[in-house]
Batch of 2 targets.
Target 1
Amino acid sequence: MDLLRKAGPLEPGYTSVVAGDTFQLKYLKMGLLRLDVSARSYEENSGEDEIVLDLLSGTCNVHVEGEDMWKDIGSRRSFFDDPPAMVYIPRKQRWRIEAPDPPVLALVFRASARRDTAPAIVRPDAARTVAIGRDNWQRTAAMAVTDNVDADRLIVGETYNLPGHWSSYPPHKHDNAATPDEAPYEEIYYFAVEPKQGFGIQRVYTAPDDPKPLDEVYVVRDGDAVVIPRGYHPVAAAGGYRVGYVWALAGDDRRFGAWSVDPDHAWLTDA
């Protein structure tokens, strides 16, 4: 199974990148929304999906049915230099995004929702930033849409690797409900690389005794996405290049950190 979606040219408006049935995903979908001088706004109904918008570049206004318009969202210097701004949109809501001063680029994550919730905005100063790991697997993560937002299934944040560093490491997985601390989640990574000609490495693999073994390794570049339906999924940044990614999870049990570490590498957790 090819889990890599390569970056490509974007037309104005919404472009679907990961549709759930393409990768046997039950809940999670992803697209990109580009606004420019030819298309300064986009509007839709969320239907049965809850949605998280992550503003990658530019500044926009967002209006969700029944709410005052949220203005001047974004204005990020770069993916690596500022925390994210995100907007959470519940199911069954009419919403609109506007770009007074285009261009604007936003990630759009969707997951089928079981209940009604409330819209929310997470501005950069509200995204909790934490340092994780040590040595050359130390990285920084921004927890944007986690327990601070009453979403039904979606959990969304960002991770930033220094050159030559690893993340999602020691390798962990979240595809099994049989262990006390692990719950099944589908996940998508959307990558940013700086300078943009650089690359990183993403591996997705299962345990040797898995009845449906999976072991894939991908070269990831700026704007690529990798779907993680199951398995361990570490990331490495090439020397000289910062590699980051937006991660979105969706599952029945919304509990960030409900995963298990590859037993072969668990000793690194306490190293």
Target 2
Amino acid sequence: MLLKDNNSGRSVTADDIHAYVDGQLSPERAAIVKAYIAENGDAAAQEADYRLINEAIRTQLDDALDRPLPFDQVALLRRRTVWRVRPVAAALGWMVIGTALGWGIAMRAPGPGVLDQLASRSTAAYGVFSPEVLHPVEVSADQTVHLSEWLTNRMGRQVSIPQLSGLGFDLVGGRLLVDADAPAAMLMYQKADGRRIVVYVSRQLSSDRPTGMKFRREMGSGVVTWANDRGGVAVVGGFTEDELIPAARLIQAALAT
């Protein structure tokens, strides 16, 4: 069943469902979308997917935010610094404390933190969507042009669709994700043996300086990450570094990031 707003005649779209889950619709529009989801199985599945990825990202972030600050160490360092050294040295001591506790954001190089977040969020997306059989993506591979235009429009930056068939990876499709408080794009590829990789594209997770391409293991999967001032990208899947790096290089060239 396809519902429409009686005033505007506008159909309920995937973007509407996404905004509904994020609480960004007016009460009137939210009621229409809610009714549509209740009567449409595919829409209900989309809503469930959005809520799953939101929860996965929120869990990753809440874990860091819930850790208590070591105030006993702060007090000890403050006593040693303020009372036993000259004012200039004291100021330098506070800079060290701030950096050690993760407070000195302006003093830290942005690259490592950005790559950590890219690895965490992309791994969460991979864990949620790569096992999915019925709804791994929103837009399938047979709509590549539409997929690129849709993601480009929502991301506010060009999102080309890399071709990885030369490496044995066929495009499954893609979807829009939530990157904290901004949209992110996800592309999925699959090998003939059924193994998949996810490409996670973030405009929000950027770095003032290019970070270079980094490989790591994250929750049993291989992850390749990189970032610059236009955003960050992660490629994640159950593959080795030697298998992922060639794919990552093709993706980097195609996305020009």
